[in-house]
Amino acid sequence: MEENFKMVAKTLFGFEELLSKELTQLGAQEIKSGVRNVSFVGDKGFMYKANLGLRTAIKILKPIHTFTVSSEKDLYDKIYKMDWSPYLKPTGSLAIDATIHSDLFSHSLFIAQKTKDAIVDKFRDTMGQRPNVDLKFPDVKINVHIDRRQCTISLDSSGDSLHKRGYKTATNIAPINEVLAAGLIMLSGWDGQSDFMDPMCGSGTMLIEAAMIACNIPPNLMRKEFAFERWQDWDVELFEKIEESLLSKTRDFHHRIIGYDKAPSAVYKAIDNVKNAQLDDFITVKHEDFFKTQKGYEEKLHMVFNPPYGERLNIDMEAFYKNIGDTLKQNYPGTDAWFITSNLDALKHVGLRPSRKIQLFNAKLESRLVKYVMYEGSKKGKYMK
């Protein structure tokens, strides 16, 4: 039997509850929510499963040592004292990243440098040889987290952020992060039981994440590599078994996923990414201006999108957001429409009252995920101001 150990999954602000629920469904133990992170307990196979199967996690860290720290010298001494041989060979390579919330230390790069010095000095002194630094493809990626005087040293089991799913070859001017897209769709309650639309689909991220949720496809199957594949205890047979077990839980999807974009270049990129994700059986992307479209059928429609915020695209925001409201009101009865924006002023011009508002962050921008319910027939004016 593999032994259990504590892990920490990092996520975006506002997704902690979603991630806890995902971990529960995957079978994690001792789940505890923090801010932008959720800790849990599992074995090595579960670590593989978490990396493959979690939609709202950015990284899975494996803490290996915790101590209090009072100065840079104290940090160096305590890291030097650790036994690094179970994790790293003297001929191996390492990379270190640090996050700091402390009045003792001001510079995360300096802390990463100090940590590296302690580790390589220890190897040089005890084995006569030292590991190299490799920022791109290290054998071991180490995370140093200092909160006030508490220092946690973890192994980063993911490597590159888990939002890099592996299906994207092309992006547009303001691409949405895959973890953010998946979280928005999950917060919207999308369950694959109706048609789904992203009317401003850009490079297709929202469409692909929606299809993977509907079919219960593990989000990170297409990644080229996880950091744990370079660890000394890497177990390829166990990994393949976990992969097979996740794949056996996929399900059929009997509705449509539709993407519109008015930029031909975005449409080409979206089609390309959908093909890479091998989801072209489920997703249709069309060159359309959302403001000139209508629903055209009675069945329920679930809409989630990420309209421009005016951060990188130069458009008349007031008119644009008014257009969103008018199009939904006049042309999309029987639709639950959700979108995220950081332009809180522009939101006032939609001309509809949202039935829900959820505070989130898109990168560093404080944002709102809003929901508008468009009723069929005479009820559709209910949420008009």
Automatic annotation (TrEMBL):
**Does the keyword section mention Secreted?**
no
> Residues in domain THUMP?
46-157
Which terms in the Gene Ontology molecular function aspect does this entry carry?
RNA binding; rRNA (guanine-N2-)-methyltransferase activity; rRNA (guanine-N7-)-methyltransferase activity
Q: Which Pfam families match?
A: RlmL_1st, THUMP, UPF0020
> SUPFAM superfamilies from the xrefs?
S-adenosyl-L-methionine-dependent methyltransferases
Q: Which InterPro entries match?
A: RlmKL-like_Mtase (IPR000241), RlmKL-like_Mtase_CS (IPR053943), RlmL_1st (IPR054170), SAM-dependent_MTases_sf (IPR029063), THUMP_dom (IPR004114)
Question: What keywords were assigned to this record?
Answer: Methyltransferase, RNA-binding, Transferase
- What's the protein called, per UniProt? Class I SAM-dependent RNA methyltransferase
Which species?
Answer: Seonamhaeicola maritimus
